[in-house]
Amino acid sequence: MANASTTPTRDPEALPLPPGPDELPVIGSTFDLMRRPIEFVDRVAEYGDVVTYRVAGQRFTAVLHPDRIERVLVSESDRFRRWAGEEWGDTFAGYGSEGLLLTEGEQWRRQRLLIQNAFTPARIESYTDAMVAETERTIEEWDDGETIELTDETSKLTLRILTRALFDLDLEERRTVVRRAADALNARANARSLSAFLPSWVPTPTNRRLHRAMDDLETLLEALIAERRADASDGDDLLSLLLAVETDDGSTLSEREVRDQLITFLFAGHETTALALTYALHALGHHTDTRRRLSEEIASVTGGDPPSVSDLGDLTHTERVVKETLRLYPPAYAIFRQATETTEIGGYRIPDGSKLTLPQIRVHRDRRFYPDPEAFRPERWTEAFEDSLPEYAYFPFGGGPRHCIGMRFAMIELELVLPTVLSAVTVDPVGGPDLAFETGITLQPADPMDAVVHER
Ligand code: HEM
């Protein structure tokens, strides 16, 4: 018998396609508009909550209402698969394809069940000392009055935390190998560049740089895996878990699957959190009242000691700052899906194979759900406000079966790193409050994020 809750109520074949601008002949070309992702989606949204548009010959359908987003991500998730730019030659150029982010079906399910063991509340709590210690070490490296570049420094920090907590590895000397690979991947995915729309084998400079950087990274990771295999001791970190695992049928993860998990976690786990920290420090630097309030909260809760996991319940304002940062500046700025059958959304026909975008960057700034949506106002996150918010009006970590596996890790990391930084230094941005963005794989600031640090 068909499951009534997941069956569309009308025959989708009889429905009209969603409305939308056929092309976007505004202010120059579509590419120009892609440089301003927020304005781009705002323009698309003028046509409704389910809208089609075209970019570089590909038709997309933007889904802009929380109830419909819930259907795609959660209640009807089996009608939609993750889309990673395959028709454009694959955004990830085939790298990490056996890792959790890019696998599908049974292979994904098996991996997710296994990897979840590294993200239980108890495991995450065991990582928190490393989170604070690595933050203190990074702050130590800053001189009083020095100008730092926030995206570089936060990326260094979150990579240190991730490799130490999850893999028990020290990649310090080889950090540039990881950074070069992440930068090359973002450059390839950047909607401004032609490479984003070409197969990865076309030898553009961006593609050549990507292959060189990823080959170096794969070589490094294979060496690290071999080292760990040779090490007889049983660690309880994620890498040891991946190497030791045996499923019910006695199978283990292939060498390639282990390597691709490392690639996946190195990328998915460090840059997103680094961007969130960058944007939080930027916003706090331009909202000094909020920063002062935060510092007072931290001092009264921690009494000057490093924050610990037991303080988190009392760091209410800190949590609100993190939530507001992820609302205004969602590092994963949109989620992409592809329909695996013809279906209906919002009264429109969504043909089999349609590519859907679910843009947090727009929904999180929708004035139907957020009064004064462009303002950075952490105090809006009261319990009453959260209760009144439709569930998928806020989804920085996605939702449904494929929601971010690192969500709790990231929230605790952000809620521990921010107090550690703010108790030691003030961070004053050099540039103004308004930011321009680049949309690579993540939401990047278009310009350097210089800031001056002063010891407190
Ligand atoms: C502020 C930080 C982070 C944000 C905003 C973020 C956001 C997201 C989002 C939106 C998704 C779902 C994508 C989709 O449905 O297509 C996702 C998936 C994922 N994230 Fe995160 N993430 C963050 C931190 C992390 C961390 C710290 C880790 C690892 C330690 C991580 C690992 C992953 C993985 C492996 C997936 C794929 C899960 C699956 O498909 O089963 N993320 N993340």
Automatic annotation (TrEMBL):
GO terms assigned for molecular function: heme binding; iron ion binding; monooxygenase activity; oxidoreductase activity, acting on paired donors, with incorporation or reduction of molecular oxygen
Keywords: Heme, Iron, Metal-binding, Monooxygenase, Oxidoreductase
First and last residue of the signal peptide: none
Gene3D superfamilies reported in the protein's UniProt record: Cytochrome P450
The keyword DNA-binding belongs to this UniProt entry's keyword annotation: no
Domain of life the protein comes from: Archaea
Xref: InterPro entries: Cyt_P450, Cyt_P450_CS, Cyt_P450_E_grp-IV, Cyt_P450_sf, Cytochrome_P450_Monoox
Region of interest: Disordered: 1-22
Family: Belongs to the cytochrome P450 family.
Identification of the protein by name: Cytochrome P450
Organism: Natrinema salaciae
